[in-house]
Model the fold of this input.
Amino acid sequence: MLNFILFCVAVLAVTVFCFWFRARNHRLWRKILYKTHLWLGIISGIVLFVVCLTGTVLVFEGDIISFLERDKHFVSHPGKSVLNLDDLVAKVEQDTNSKVILVDIDDRRIDTTKYYSMVTKTENYKNAETKPEIQIQRHSVDPYTGEIVIFENSFSPLGEFFYVVRRLHQRLFLPSPIGELVVGSATLIFVIITLSGFCLWLPANFRNIKAWKNGCLIRFRKGKYSLIFDLHKTLGFYALIPILLMALTGLTWSFQWYENGVHMVFAPYPYTPLKSLPKNPDAKQLPIGFFDKKADELLAPRKGGYRKIFFPEKEDDGVMIMEWRREGLLQLGGLDRIQFDQYTGEVLQFDNFDKFSISKKIVVLFPLIHYGSFLGLSTRIIFFIACLIATTLPITGVVIWWRKLRNLRKAKNKTE
Done:
C-alpha cells in the first residue's frame, strides 16, 4: 500500500510540474508537445493502426464465435440434468486412456450450457531408462452425456481467423520476443502520444469557455480540413481514458519489467502453490466433485462465471479452483482463487476478490480491463468504440501533418 501511495504522489508531482512549466513557458511547452506528438506518431503510426484495428476485432471475439457457431459451443438436452463431474471425468479418462488434469466450466445454466473443456495428460514410456513422452490434449465434452466432441474452437474457420488476428495483435506475426518488443514499444509510445495529445487539446486559457466548447465539438460545416482536425482532436479526447487503460494494461504482456513494476507499485498477487497436509498411509484423494461443490458454497450466492479446476498431479499437490466472475451491467468482475488439501478438503488459501484492497483489485483486474470486460457488456461497448476511434487517429493525424507540410511548401515557394 505504501508503494501505491508513493506512486500516486509521484504522478501528482509530475502533473504539478507540467502545469508549472506550461504556465511559465507556454510557447516552448506547446512546441515540445507538438514535436513529440508528431514524430512519435509518424514513427509508430503503422504499428498502432494494425494493433488498434485487430484489437477492435477482438473485443467481441467470444460473442461472435458463440453466436455464429452456437451449435459448437452450447448443448441443450431439455429435461435432462448435467452429469456428476466425477462421472464425467471418469468417462473421459476411460475413453482417452489418460488422466484429466484440468477442467474448464463456463456458463452453467439449466437445460442449456456450454460444452465442458477437459485437458488430459498421457505419459508414454518407450522403455524404463528414458523419460516418458508427455502428450497434452484438450477435449470438448457434452456435460449431459459425457461424449467427447471432435471439434475444437481453434480448428473451425472462425476460430482460425481470430487466432490469426490475435497473433497479429500481439506480435505482428514476428517471432515471439521480437514481435512483443515491437508491439510493446509502440504501445509505450502510444501512451506518450495520448498524454501529449491531451495536453495539446487543453485550451491556452482555462477561463475561455468557447475554447472548451470547441474542443468538445466536431464542426461539420467548417470545411473538410477542419472536420478532419476535429475528428482527430475531439474523438481522441473522448476516447482518452479507454485508450490509456488498454495501453497501460496491455504493456504487462510485452515487458516483464513493467509487469514487475505493476506488482511492486500496486500489490503482489503471486500464485504460491501450497502443499497438501501430511496424509495417512491409507488416505485417498477426495473426488473432484467435492471440491467443485465446496467452491460453490464458498462463492455463493454468485451465479455464472468461468471456472478452472486444476487437479493435483503429485501426492502433495493441492487442488486449485480459479473462477472469473461474469457479472451483470455495471457490476465489477473479478477473480477468486481457492486452494484445497486434496485428502481432507481443508481450505489452504482463499483469495476472495471482495476482500482485496483497492490496489490489489487493480492488479487482478488488469486482464479484464484490457479486454474491456471489468463492467460487463457496458465497458466492452465503450472499449470497442474507443478502439475504433484509436484506429482512425493515425490516419487523421497523417492527413493533418501532410496538409500542414503542403501549406508550408506553398508558403515557401511564394516567398522565393
Remarks:
- The beta strands are 74-76, 99-106, 112-114, 116-124, 133-141, 148-149, 306-310, 318-324, 335-341, 347-351.
- The longest strand covers residues 116-124.
- The chain has a mean pLDDT of 84.
